Amino acid sequence: MTTDETRNEKYSTFALLESRYGPLMSLKNIAEALKYPTVDSVRKALARKTLPLTATRLPNRREIFVKTNEVAGYLDKSN
Q1: Which runs of E-coded beta strand occur in 2-79?
Q2: Residue whose C-alpha is closest to residue 75's, from 21, 23, 24, 30
Q3: Which of 4, 30, 32, 47 lies at a C-alpha separation of 20 to 30 Å from 16?
Q4: At 67, is the secondary structure helix, strand, or coil?
Q5: What is the pLDDT of residues 39-56, one digit of tens each?
Q6: Cα torsion 25, 26, 29, 35: sign
Q7: Distance of alpha carbon 73 from its chain centroid, rounded?
């Protein structure tokens, strides 16, 4: 593995998001990462099915989550 590959792996979108948010991202985290103005705008995008991510609820939790690797993949595709 070359130095550039190591650097790219270390600073990959997924690595950066996972170090900041962990394996799951809340709607608040999604709003920050995707530059939505508010959490409510993320909720509306989910309701309208215009958010290009798969959101899930965990058992016994009220919060909605998205896998960090899915968000990283979306960000990588959009760049």
Answers
A1: 24-26, 56-57, 64-67
A2: 30
A3: 47
A4: strand
A5: 999 999 999 999 999 999
A6: positive
A7: 8
